[in-house]
């Protein structure tokens, strides 16, 4: 009884917050509602007895994905109110299509009982959820598991191909070059007369090459 | 755990990983694109041979099936990928795309297609589809400094994700109402009991998700923009092999586990086919850009190929398979000709740029004319046989409306294909194109010979397609 009550509470908040994700005016609020939706979905998983999935949902989606979303929303200067300008114009058409679809779904599912078949309870093996998952994933579904790995690899290659730029002006630390340098390559001992300084002249070590001394970024030059 | 069934896929993925390693560890100062392309073509050829040698059966915990149908689809997809890769050889170099990841991503995408063709489980279906799509999203955007390419990648990604979401929702409904992810178990469950409405809703969503990948109407909106924006070599790939893989999934799911719902999905497929044929032929008339023209042309072709599925029997499936074979061949050839349209280093996509090609470059004009005539369905060429087979299959199944619409739209379609030919042969010659690369000419030559001499290879292709269709339909009964 209490489980059913909690199911409906979680489900109601989930649907409501999912609606708010779309409807919220402020994108940061939308992301926060998304996090709320994730938490409630995790609650539903807990009720279903899938505690591993519930925890993964919280850790991965709330902990990583949603926070990333927040970063992106805050860092990109997107004028969301401008993006919504077309909304008023297209809202009636969208609402009409949505209504028709909804009516069709209701008509189709009208004869449907909420839970048509009582799902057969899986045989209790005395193992925890994650242990069971591990047993299936690494044996029966090893092919699919590895295929998922390849999908992730492709996503990673994609991220690198689309974003990595070899910048010439970036200041990278090349440890091998640093180790190969001798003091004589870069240092010159000068003995200026007291009170006169070096008169603005620059002394170069005999081994000095312009290649070793990369040009400073433009930003630094302007400040100096 | 009969893992030997998946040897071609495993070998292809391992080859892709090896190529990737060579590219990453190689000398940073040089471009490894050429080497990577050669290695990728070699690994695809090797995988193709392995496909031909691979045994039949269900394995890997029941998620993977290998039969004559899977082999046919894999060979066609691999062939399309090899042709597209050969097209990309020169066009990527000239467009300044020096990423060695380009062929590697194509290899992974092809591996995804092979998994799709061999799916015996809803999870295999989804993972194969995502592997194929992810690589394609990246490939579309790979010319990242060009606005059109980024736009194409983003559009394809956003809409593709939406379609994946719909597909997943449908799969979850099918799973929930049939109680299993395995095709065989779903088929048994559907044949045994009454069909619940939830299953029908799930089926509709699955069809929507797959039809999106086919770019059939009404889920075609992304096609022209993506085809136009993506680099030409990517478009050549996108228009060929992925459609074959999506068809493999659609045929396998509809005729296999959802075979009991044939009366339900038949009308759906008919509507999609009619809309695709009509829109593909009407919207193409106004196009001035050859890549957009090819996009609408591919939408139309998907409509014709769907006709065979709507027939829902062995003859129909055979017709669709032959149609896909001819489509992939002439599509690769047409894109080889499009890639050759370069003037002073700039890629030309305007149809007007072809003006007078018949006098400037008779060989290229001849090739383009063959592909255009074939796509229009002019008799001795490959395209005619594909169309003939689907029309006959549709008529024999009593789908007169479908066949009638198909004939009318092919006549309309002939108009815009022949307009390209007219521009090439009767307009005042424009400035000459840059010299063609040998790889591009080779693709055009191979496709041109296969298209023009299809009568000669007709018998083996037809036999292989019929064998594939028979193996698929026998699998659903037994």
UniProtKB/TrEMBL annotation, chain A:
InterPro entries: NADH_UbQ/plastoQ_OxRdtase_su6, Nuo/plastoQ_OxRdtase_6_NuoJ. The keyword Transmembrane helix applies. GO terms for molecular function: NADH dehydrogenase (ubiquinone) activity; oxidoreductase activity; quinone binding. One of its GO terms (cellular component) is plasma membrane. The keyword Lipid metabolism does not apply. Pfam families: Oxidored_q3. Belongs to the complex I subunit 6 family. NCBIfam families: PRK06638.1-4. This is NADH-quinone oxidoreductase subunit J.
TrEMBL record, chain B:
It is a multi-pass membrane protein. It comes from the Bacteria. GO terms for biological process: ATP synthesis coupled electron transport. It catalyses: a quinone + NADH + 5 H(+)(in) = a quinol + NAD(+) + 4 H(+)(out). Residues 119-413 form the NADH:quinone oxidoreductase/Mrp antiporter transmembrane domain. GO terms for cellular component: endomembrane system; plasma membrane. The chain crosses the membrane at residues 6-26, 38-65, 71-88, 100-117, 154-177, 183-212, 233-255, 267-286, 318-341, 362-385, 397-418, 442-469. It is an enzyme of class 7 (translocase). GO terms for molecular function: NADH dehydrogenase (quinone) (non-electrogenic) activity; NADH dehydrogenase (ubiquinone) activity; quinone binding. Keywords: Cell membrane, Membrane, NAD, Oxidoreductase, Quinone, Translocase, Transmembrane, Transmembrane helix, Transport, Ubiquinone. It is found in: Cell membrane; Endomembrane system; Membrane. InterPro entries: NADH-Q_OxRdtase_suN/2, ND/Mrp_TM. Its EC number is 7.1.1.-. Its main location: membrane. NDH-1 shuttles electrons from NADH, via FMN and iron-sulfur (Fe-S) centers, to quinones in the respiratory chain. The immediate electron acceptor for the enzyme in this species is believed to be ubiquinone. Couples the redox reaction to proton translocation (for every two electrons transferred, four hydrogen ions are translocated across the cytoplasmic membrane), and thus conserves the redox energy in a proton gradient. Belongs to the complex I subunit 2 family. NDH-1 is composed of 14 different subunits. Subunits NuoA, H, J, K, L, M, N constitute the membrane sector of the complex. HAMAP family: NDH1_NuoN_1. NCBIfam families: NDH_I_N, PRK05777.1-3. This is NADH-quinone oxidoreductase subunit N. It comes from Endobacter medicaginis. The lineage of its organism: Bacteria, Pseudomonadati, Pseudomonadota, Alphaproteobacteria, Acetobacterales. The gene is nuoN.
């Amino acid at each position: 009884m209490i489980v059913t009550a909690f199911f409906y509470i979680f489900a109601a908040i989930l649907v409501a917050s999912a609606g708010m994700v779309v409807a919220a005016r402020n994108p940061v609020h939308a992301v926060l509602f998304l996090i709320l939706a994730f938490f409630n979905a995790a609650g539903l998983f807990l009720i279903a007895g899938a505690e591993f999935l519930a925890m993964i949902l919280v850790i991965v989606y709330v902990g990583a994905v949603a926070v990333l979303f927040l970063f992106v929303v805050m860092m990109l200067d997107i004028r969301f109110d401008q993006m919504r300008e077309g909304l008023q114009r297209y809202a009636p058409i969208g609402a009409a299509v949505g209504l028709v679809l909804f009516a069709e779904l209701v008509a189709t599912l009208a004869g449907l009982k909420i839970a048509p078949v009582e799902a057969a309870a899986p045989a209790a093996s005395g193992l925890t959820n994650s242990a069971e998952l591990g047993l299936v994933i690494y044996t029966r579904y090893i092919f699919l598991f590895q295929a998922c790995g390849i999908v992730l690899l492709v996503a990673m290659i994609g991220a690198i191909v689309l974003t990595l730029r070899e910048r010439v002006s970036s200041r990278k630390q090349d440890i091998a070059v640093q180790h190969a340098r001798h003091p004589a390559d870069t240092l010159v001992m000068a003995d200026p007369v007291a009170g006169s300084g070096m008169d603005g002249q620059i002394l170069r070590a005999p081994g000095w090459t312009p290649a070793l001394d990369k040009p400073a970024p433009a930003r630094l030059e302007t400040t100096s | 755990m009969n893992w030997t069934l998946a040897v071609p896929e495993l070998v292809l993925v391992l080859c892709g990983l090896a190529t990737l390693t060579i590219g990453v560890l190689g000398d940073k100062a040089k471009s490894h694109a050429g080497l990577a392309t050669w290695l990728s073509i070699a690994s695809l050829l090797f995988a193709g041979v392995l496909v031909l040698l691979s045994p039949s059966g269900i394995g890997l915990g029941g998620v993977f099936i290998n039969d004559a149908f899977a082999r046919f689809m894999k060979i066609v997809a691999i062939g399309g990928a090899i042709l597209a890769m050969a097209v990309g050889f020169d066009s990527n170099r000239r467009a300044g795309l020096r990423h060695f990841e380009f062929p590697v991503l194509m290899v992974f995408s092809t591996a995804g297609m092979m998994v799709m063709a061999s799916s015996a489980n809803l999870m295999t279906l989804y993972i194969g589809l995502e592997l194929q799509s992810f690589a394609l999203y990246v490939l579309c955007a790979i010319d990242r400094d060009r606005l059109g390419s980024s736009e194409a990648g983003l559009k394809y990604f956003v809409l593709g994700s939406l379609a994946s979401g719909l597909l997943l929702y449908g799969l979850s409904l099918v799973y929930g109402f049939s109680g299993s992810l395995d095709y065989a178990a779903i088929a048994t469950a559907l044949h045994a009991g009454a069909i619940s409405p939830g299953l029908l809703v799930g089926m509709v969503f699955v069809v929507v998700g797959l039809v999106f990948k086919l770019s059939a109407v009404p889920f075609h909106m992304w096609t022209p923009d993506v085809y136009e924006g993506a680099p030409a070599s990517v478009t050549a790939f996108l228009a060929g092999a992925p459609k074959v893989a999506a068809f493999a999934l659609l045929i396998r799911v509809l005729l296999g586990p959802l075979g009991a719902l044939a009366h339900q999905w038949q009308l759906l497929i008919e509507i999609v086919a009619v809309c695709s044929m009509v829109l593909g032929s009407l919207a193409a008339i106004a196009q001035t850009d050859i890549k957009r023209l090819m996009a609408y042309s591919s939408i139309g072709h998907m409509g014709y190929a769907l006709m065979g599925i709507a027939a829902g029997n062995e003859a129909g499936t055979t017709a669709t398979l032959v149609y896909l074979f001819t489509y992939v061949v002439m599509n690769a050839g047409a894109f080889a000709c499009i890639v050759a349209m370069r003037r002073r280093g700039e890629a030309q996509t305007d149809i007007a740029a072809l003006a007078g090609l018949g006098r400037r470059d008779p060989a290229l004009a001849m090739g383009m004319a063959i592909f255009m005539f074939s796509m229009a369905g002019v008799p001795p060429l490959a395209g005619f046989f594909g169309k003939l087979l689907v029309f006959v299959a549709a008529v024999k199944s009593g789908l007169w409306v479908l066949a009638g619409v198909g004939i009318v739209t092919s006549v309309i379609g002939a108009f815009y294909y022949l307009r390209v030919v007219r521009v090439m042969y009767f307009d005042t010659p424009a400035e000459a194109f840059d010299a063609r690369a040998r790889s591009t000419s080779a693709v055009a030559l191979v496709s041109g010979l296969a298209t023009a001499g299809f009568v000669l290879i007709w018998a083996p292709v037809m036999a292989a397609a019929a064998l594939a269709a028979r193996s698929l339909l026998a699998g659903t009964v037994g």
